[in-house]
Amino acid sequence: MTYQHKIVWITGASSGIGEALAQAFAKQGAKLVLSARRVDELERVAKSLSIAAEHIFILPLDLTQTELHAGFAEQVVARFGRIDVLVNNGGVSQRALAQDSPLDVDRKIMEVNYFGNIALAKAVLPYFLNQKSGQFIIISSIAGKFGFWFRSAYSAAKHALHGFYESLRMETEQHGVNVLLVCPGKINTNISVNALKADGSRHEKMDDATAAGISAEACAHQIIQAAQAGKEEVLIGGREIKAVWIKRHFPKLFGRIIRKQKPE
Q1: Quick one: pLDDT band at residue 81, thresholds 50, 70, 90?
Q2: Which CATH number is 173's domain given?
Q3: Which end of the chain is more exposed for a tag (fewer CB within 10 A), N or C?
Q4: Mean pLDDT of 84-102
Q5: Band of the pLDDT at 262, cuts 50, 70, 90?
Q6: What pTM did the predictor assign?
Q7: Distance from C-alpha of 81 to C-alpha of 84, rounded to nearest angstrom
C-alpha cells in the first residue's frame, strides 16, 4: 500500500505520535487533515510539513463533542472528496489511584479515549462503506492488554477500544475496510505530562519510563509499516512490549513481574 495522494485524517496531530505520523504521511505524499484542540499547534505542525499548503486541512475538534463529528467528516469530504484513512490518535492518559479518582474523572477519560474515538469512526464509516475502501488506524496502548498502576480508567478505555474495533473489523472487512490496532509501550512524548490526576488536573510531570522510551518518529515509522502491510495489530516499544506475550503464555509469571514495576 502506498499513501501517495491518499486523504489521511489524524486526530491528536498537534504533538507526540500524531505529529510524527503527520510528518511520516506527508513524506509518503498523502494529503492531510490535522485535528486537535490547539489551533496554534496544528498550524505549527502544518508549516513544518513537506507538502503543499493546499494539501493540508486544519480542522480543530474536541473529541468529547461527539454530536459534531458527523459534520466534521462532511467538511473533510467537502474539502478533499473522500477519506481514505482515519488515524484515531487523540486521547488523554491518567496518573491516579482508582480509590482516589471520582467517577466524573473516569467518565472524562472514557469520553475522550473511547466514546470520542468511536464516534468519529462511526462518522467516517459510511464513507468507507460507500467507497468500498478505507483504513482505521487506532492508537491504543499496551495498557489495552493489561492494567497498570494509576491507569484504571485509561486501561479500561483502551481495553474497550479493542473490543469495539475487533468487532468492527469482522463486520466490515468484506467491504474493503481495514482496522489496525496499535499498542505503543513507552514512547517519548508528553503523554504523562498531559495525563489527568485524581482531581482532573494535569499531571505536569514527565515519567522516567516515558522519557526513556523510543522516539515518536520511530513509533510512527513502525505504525506506517504495519499499516502498509495490512496488519491487524502491532506492538511498538522496547522490552516492555514482551509483557504482552508473557501475560498470554505465563500469566503467573507476568503477575509477579508486573507487581515489581515502578509505579509512576
Answers
A1: very high
A2: 3.40.50.720
A3: N
A4: 97
A5: confident
A6: 0.96
A7: 10
> Is 27 part of any domain?
yes
The answer to whether residue 154 is catalytic is yes
* Per-residue pLDDT tens over the stretch 189-228: 999 999 999 999 999 999 999 999 999 999 999 999 999 9
264 is a domain residue: no
CB-based contact 213:42 (threshold 8 Å)? no
Of the CA atoms within 13 Å of residue 263, those in its CB half-sphere come to 9
> Could you say which of 3, 114, 154, 165 is catalytic?
154
Positive or negative CA dihedral for 37, 39, 40, 46?
Answer: positive
141 strand-pairing partners: none
Concatenated DSSP letters for 132-160? T-EEEEEE--GGGTS--TT-HHHHHHHHH
Residue ranges of alpha helices (H) inside the chain are: 16-27, 39-48, 69-80, 103-110, 116-131, 152-172, 208-211, 216-228, 242-249, 251-259
Tell me how many domains the chain contains. 1
Give the C-alpha separation, 148 to 209, whole Å: 13
Specify the pLDDT at position 51.
96
